[in-house]
Amino acid sequence: MKKVFTLLLLFFAITTTALAQQKAFQVQVIGKGKPILLIPGYSCSGEVWAETVDQLKDRYECHVLTIAGFAGAPAIDAPILQTVKDEIIRYVKQKKLKKPELIGHSLGAFMSLWVSSEAPDLFGKVICVDGVPFISAMADPKITAESMKSSPYMNPKQVVKNFESLPAEGFIDRTALAMKAQVEDSLRARQIATWQFNSDRRTLGLSLVEISTTDLREQIATIKQPVLVLGSIYNTKENSQRILNEQYSKVRNKTIRVADSKHFIMYDQPQWFYAEIVAFLK
After folding, report:
1. Where does the AB hydrolase-1 domain start and stop, copy by copy (predicted)?
2. How far is Cα 21 from Cα 47, in angstroms, rounded to an integer?
3. Spatial distance between the Cα atoms of 81 and 46, rounded to a whole number of angstroms
4. Is residue 67 domain-resident?
5. What strands lie across the sheet with 60-67, from one edge to the other?
6. Which residues make beta-bridge pairs with 204?
7. Residues with Cβ < 8 Å from 202, sequence gap 6 or more?
8. How many domains does the chain divide into?
9. Dist. CA 80–CA 171, nearest whole Å
10. How far apart are CA 223 and CA 115, in angstroms?
């Protein structure tokens, strides 16, 4: 009996160590200067920030993340985004980064809001590139996280099954065509589609459910630092401004700018984008 108990303890220790070693994101560090974390959007590699890093690396130490399960990075267990949030905070503490700035695109903007609202004294300025605190309420601000969780469309098992059933043949071509609604350049669209093809299907499903059922609109009131919101065109600039004002109403120190752009602003309007972020970070 004692041997069995010892073996169980050993198994538990090994399992716990394995779980602790799971990586919620990969990091590439480029440049020197004040630290800045760059978080890509849904299914994207950290390579999405390559040109942005070129603009910043002479003045900033750029910590470029690729979230687990996206673009070929090894997947982790659920809850995925919550684990990413916790590990970003832990990473900044362990690396002893002093008030790192945050730049996040889409899902990365959501993650930037999440970590900076949970640990407001740990981070510096925040730049949200076409991302919001509660994506499900963009069309209707009355929608709640609870109503989304009860929706049959947000059943995690079914959403994962839907992603896993997508045929590999023609996946990149179909996704690249769909991505033309989010970025002007066809080569960029194909690159984004390739990152999605190389992403773990389960991660694609579970992270979509997680972001769709997590509402940060009240929580972001704790953010102390300045926040720059860069939005794209949602039908009209006026509509974009209205939606972003609603979504970010609880942030005290914010600046909202709307680009003449699709979703990937850093690709569609690079010079406008660089000018905005450089001016904000000064």
Report:
1. 34-269
2. 24
3. 16
4. yes
5. 25-30, 60-67, 34-39, 101-105, 126-129, 227-231, 254-258
6. none
7. 69, 75, 160, 163, 164
8. 1
9. 24
10. 10
